[in-house]
Design brief:
Blueprint: H1 5-9, H2 29-50, H3 57-66, H4 71-74, H5 79-82, H6 86-105, H7 109-119, H8 125-148, H9 155-167, H10 171-179, H11 188-191
């Protein structure tokens, strides 16, 4: 018997994000998932190694990698629509749960519990907060990169996303914003290359 789970996942690259916005560089859900995994892992390491709090960064990275997998069936619903009302958000959550169940059904039985723990991690808010933060941080980085490319389309989104990041009041996020976000404002020459690294 064959299973379609990974064939489904491979189609994340066809789902476009920011569908209502004019982007200089289109972004798909597969790319976004990778960025979120990198950021969630980083936030987990900051929590564990900088702040000295218990955390499993590798698990966070895996959860982030799959956090948008149900969009294979639901597509990426624009934020203004998804959060238009509590009723609409609840309906979307129900559809998303059904999509996750369909994904799990495309796996052999012995693997389902392990993937269910990744696809359903949002049920534990304490565990999921850094993944949500990574998701929002990924959006903020996208806005910064679009602004740097001269695209004013993302100006309002950049300001509102930064505000929401601050409102999350997570020390891990504040650390990342202070120590790592300035690098995203630099050009390649300012960052330095292999031949001439930046000594600053």
């Amino acid at each position: 018997m064959s299973y379609d789970f990974f064939a489904y996942l491979s189609r994340l690259k066809y789902i476009r994000r920011w569908s209502l916005m004019r982007s200089t560089e289109p972004e798909n859900v597969q790319e976004h998932s990778h960025v979120c995994a990198v950021l969630a892992h980083a936030l987990g390491l900051i929590r564990r190694d900088v702040l000295g709090k218990p955390c499993d960064p590798e698990h966070l990275a895996a959860v982030a990698l799959f956090h948008d997998a149900p969009e294979i069936f639901t597509s990426d619903l624009p934020t203004p629509i998804k959060y238009h009302s509590d009723g609409l958000k609840a309906a979307y959550d129900e559809v998303e749960a059904g999509a996750a169940a369909r994904l799990l059904a495309s796996l052999p039985e012995p693997l389902r519990a392990s993937y269910d723990a990744l696809l359903s991690a949002h049920r534990d808010p304490a565990e999921y907060e850094l993944v949500r933060a990574a998701d929002k941080l990924s959006a903020y980085i996208k806005c910064v990169e679009e602004r740097k490319a001269g695209n004013r389309e993302f100006a309002s989104a950049e300001a509102s996303t930064l505000r929401r990041l601050r409102e999350m009041a997570l020390p891990e996020l504040d650390y990342f914003l202070e120590h790592f976000m300035p690098g995203f404002e630099k050009t390649l020459d300012e960052l330095g290359t292999l031949e001439g690294g930046n000594e600053a």
